[in-house]
Write a structure and sequence with these properties.
Elements: H1 5-16, H2 19-34, H3 40-46, H4 48-53, H5 56-80, H6 93-101, H7 105-134, H8 137-140, H9 143-160, H10 165-179, E1 182-183, E2 190-191, H11 205-221, H12 239-249, H13 253-268, H14 274-287, H15 301-324, H16 330-341, H17 348-353, H18 355-376, H19 379-382, H20 391-407, H21 413-432, H22 436-460, H23 471-504
Helix pairs in contact: 1-18, 2-5, 2-18, 3-16, 5-6, 5-7, 5-15, 5-16, 5-18, 6-7, 7-12, 7-13, 7-15, 7-18, 9-10, 9-14, 9-22, 9-23, 10-22, 11-20, 11-21, 11-22, 13-14, 13-15, 14-15, 20-21
Length: about 500
């Protein structure tokens, strides 16, 4: 069932009237998103008794606002101290932190906030208008397409390896090897676990993320005085400069639009998630950039693309939950528990019996981003000052908070040990010129690609041609090949043009 304009207006006003729920949820979500390990689903689980006591509309509004804000908050430490608060913000570190080291932390934060809010608003609006159509995407995007989409993310390893191809590929391959640890997906035979029970399910993502980025970065920080290395006058901008940074970020509206739409479609696929969306969006932004060689040195597009994409995912993960009763991610799974407790149906029955509830969830997300627009932008001026705090204060605090974050998701003491081990590994990688982001991409995407690949093989009877039979898969393969071939061709043409100009003069 689709709603008309009057009903949409009534939903908007109703969501707006719940400001007293949305604003606290935004603050809690930003804080928890900024602490590695304390993701939205962990926070909602801790507050589960509260959400079960609320009316279902209030509970959903609270959870949705907290979910959106946690994705926005994850980019704050990624920019300021090179530590992604969530997996979706890992790609933001590639250019966000270099901007902070140049003294442009306030500008990078403004870019992050604008991209996050605009990405969320765009995808929420698109979903409200096209929810029946988007709910069918999950039926057409299956394991074959998932393999190709995740290969787009792996292609980012090649982009990262551009400066030093051998080291980049070694780091990516090492990450894939680590990702293969745990029980295999067919016979559940342990691989590379060394008899450690906690590794039977594979490398836990949160401790690996915390170790590679947080612990290793804290060790590196102890060797330097502060994060900011450039002109520190830009670190503490005036209100005039802050407003200029915010409005200047709107120049990237086209990149925000297509990155967020990309995130929306990836979010609709159950199990894909913000990490894949952010890496794919970053890789595509680099591909279509006029100056791809500058990515990784602190360019604005490198912050905008992943932040818009991972906030576009937030809307997408709710669509399969509402349409077919399959949660698109861990946070959506927790929301499913709350909905089941309140007796809310899923799938077509939800749209027939309670269409205003289905559309109201997305409208609450739209309104939550509007409130974030008001609440978060002033913080771009003050948060950037963290980069001039002495590192001998910052590093111990980072290690303490993040090790707690490594323990929280599973409650295993072994996860703290894993985080420390990955921290040492990340520190050695940084000091020897290996990119920790390439390792993380392998750890995240390796198990997912293997699972989807084996599923296709089992269904098709080990027929490799199954990957090329479906029209959508064929289109994606063409795009993937173009992604890998076009950049070298464009680089060759640019160099040839430069050489010709030099010959003329």
């Amino acid at each position: 069932m689709e709603l008309n304009g009057i009903e949409f207006g009534a939903l908007f006003l109703n969501s707006l009237s719940l400001w007293w729920v949305i604003i606290p949820a935004v603050f809690v979500g930003v804080i928890m998103g900024a602490i590695p390990g304390f993701a939205a689903h962990n926070t909602i689980i801790m507050l589960l008794p509260l959400t079960l006591a609320f009316d279902v509309n209030i509970a959903l509004t609270f959870m949705v606002a907290l979910y959106c804000a946690s994705h926005l908050g994850g980019g704050i430490p990624a920019i300021l101290v090179n530590i992604p608060g969530t997996g979706g913000a890992a790609a933001t570190t590639l250019d966000g932190f270099p901007m902070a080291r140049k003294g442009l932390a306030a500008k990078a934060l403004a870019l992050s906030f604008v991209a996050s809010v605009l990405g969320g608003l765009i995808t929420s609006a698109v979903t409200l208008l096209a929810l029946p159509l988007l709910s069918r995407v999950g039926f057409y995007i299956q394991s074959v397409e998932m393999v190709v989409i995740m290969l787009f993310g792996l292609a980012l390893i090649a982009a990262i390896a551009a400066a030093d191809m051998l080291k980049g590929l070694i780091a990516g391959a090492f990450g894939l090897m680590l990702g293969a640890m745990g029980a295999d997906h067919i016979f559940a035979t342990p691989r590379g676990t060394f008899g450690i029970l906690e590794l039977f399910d594979g490398i836990p993502l949160v401790p690996a993320l915390i170790g590679l980025f947080a612990v290793s970065e804290a060790l590196v920080m102890l060797e330097e005085r502060t994060v900011a290395k450039g002109d520190t006058t830009a670190v503490m901008p005036t209100w005039r400069q802050t407003i200029q940074n915010i409005f200047g970020a709107f120049r990237h509206w086209w990149l925000v639009t297509w990155s967020s739409i990309l995130g929306l479609f990836i979010g609709v696929m159950p199990g894909a998630g913000a990490s894949i969306a952010a890496f794919v969006a970053y890789q595509q932004a680099r591909l279509f950039s006029k100056e791809p060689e500058k990515f990784g040195t602190g360019v604005e597009q490198g912050v905008v693309a992943p932040e818009a994409a991972n906030n576009g995912v937030t809307t997408g993960t709710l669509i399969p939950l509402l349409a077919i009763g399959v949660p698109g991610g861990s946070t959506a799974a927790v929301m499913m528990i709350v909905l089941q407790y309140h007796g809310v149906p899923f799938g077509p029955r939800l749209f027939m019996q309670s269409p205003t509830l289905a559309y109201g969830v997305i409208m609450s997300m739209f309104v939550a981003y509007i409130f974030m627009l008001i609440v978060m932008f002033p913080m771009a001026r003050y948060l950037s000052r963290i980069t001039v705090v002495a590192n001998y204060y910052m590093a111990p605090m980072i290690i303490a908070f993040t090790l707690v974050g490594a323990f929280v998701p599973r409650g295993f003491m072994a996860d703290i040990v894993i985080a420390v081990a990955f921290g040492v590994l990340g520190y050695v990688a940084r000091k020897t010129g290996y990119h920790v982001a390439a390792i993380l991409i392998g750890v995240i995407l390796g198990p997912l690609i293997e699972k989807s690949f084996l599923l296709v093989m089992r269904i098709s009877g080990n027929d490799m041609t199954a990957f090329f039979q479906k029209p959508i898969a064929q289109i994606l393969w063409v795009l993937l090949v173009a992604t890998l071939v076009v950049p070298p061709v464009l680089k060759w043409r640019r160099n040839r043009k430069i050489n010709r100009s030099a010959d003329v003069y």
